[in-house]
Every structure is written in structure tokens, then in C-alpha cells.
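Tutorial, part two.
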Amino acid sequence: MLTKEDYDKFVEDFSKKLKNHKDVCFYLYGSYTTGNCDYGRSDIDGGLILNNQFITDKEKMLDISNSLCECLIEHPIEEQFNVLDRGTNLDGRFLSYTKDYTDWIKNHGKVIKGDEKYISELNGHDFKSNILYSTSFNLRFLRNSLLKSRFNVKKNQDVLAKDFERYLKTFTGLPKKLIYLRTGELLDRRFVAQDKIKELLGHDPFYLNETNQILSNIKKLEKFSKDPGIVISILTESLTDFELMIKEYVCKYPEIGEREFKI
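Running the prediction step on this input gives:
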């Protein structure tokens, strides 16, 4: 049975492993920080804010993934850590937290390591449209999957294999969402959206094309899903391209659009 000491040691050990990443803010919130934790049953809620503008440092993320893996193997505690960046936080549209959540984190969260001002930059929005809401959670899903990838290679490769197709569909579905948010046009085919996103953002769809090709080839999809190294490599590239499209969208359209929030 896990105890308070186990939880404390996990947090301490993970924080120490982040010492080489001085520009990363590691924060916690929820029952563990308020003292209402049901040790052995409660998870630890928190996150990592990287000092990046929209596009996260993948070498850093994979190193942190290794550190998290080592800590989880030694201390098998359930955690819910979200990976954030300062650019997305400040804009807020593609941040998965709503305003009440960001207010809670600012007032009750605890920075374990790093610059506390990163927390103050969290710009949660309420009343997001369904498309914008799902897009922010898709970004969160891909980032958190990469953060947990090293642990899954060690302990749960079935998760990587099972979620591989979901990674690809999450990535290739982004152009359709961004096109709708700005033009109102609903596209039902990935390859059409792949061509149109270049018109909208000036984005080179090379990796989109490659990923769409994998999705269209069942044998290749099944083969790749069984190789953790390939899965992580494709997840890394997909996430980078996903983030790049978000960055280009925010830079081109800094003002909130009519289809981004519910009236």
C-alpha cells in the first residue's frame, strides 16, 4: 500500500531529475497539495511548463520522459501531468484549461521547481466552441502521450500500439478543424484539408502527406504500431507539426474568431 512518504519521495525524486532543465516549471495542484489526498488511491495532478513558444523542445521532452519513467518504476504512483508551453498559455485558445481551472492553479497550485511567473501566464478561456475545445485536448493528448512514452515502452507497450492510429488521426484531423475555425468550411476528407491548409497558413504539408499515407495503408499501419521506436518517432514528428500549425494559426489570426467561442 502506497503511503504519503511514497508520494513525497516521487515528487522529490522527479523534481531532482529536472535539475538540468532550469527553464522548466514543475507545478502541482489538487488533493496532494491541499492535504486531502487518499494515499494509494489518489493520483497526483500537475504539469510541466516549457519555456517555448508553441513548439516544444522534443529532445527536452524525451529526456523528461526518461526521468518520469525512472520515477514511476521506482514509485508506482498514478499521475496526471500536462505538458504546456508559454506561447499557448498566453494566447489561451489552445490551452485545455478553462478559466476556473487556471484561477484554481494560480491560487492553490504549488510550484515545485522553476519560475512561478509561468503559472501567472495561464490564460484560461470559457465557452469555447466544440471544435476549439476538442483541438486543445488533442494537443494535450499528443503532448502527454510523448511525456509518458518512455514509461509505456518499459511497462506498457500495448498502450503505444493501441493508440498509434489515434495519434495519426489526431494529427491529420487538425487541418480540417483549423480551416473550419477560420472559414466555416466543413471538409470530410483528410487529403483535401491537407491541400487547403497550405492556402490558409502557408504550411508545407509534407509530414501530413506522409502520415495520411500511413493511415491509408493498413499493413504499414499494423507493422509500425508494433515497433515502439517507430511509434515514438512518428509521434514526435506529428506533435511538432501539430504545434507548428497551431503557432502559424495564432500568429496569422491573433484576434479571437467568430467560430472559436460560443456566443
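The chain has a mean pLDDT of 95. In part three we will examine how such features are distributed along the chain.
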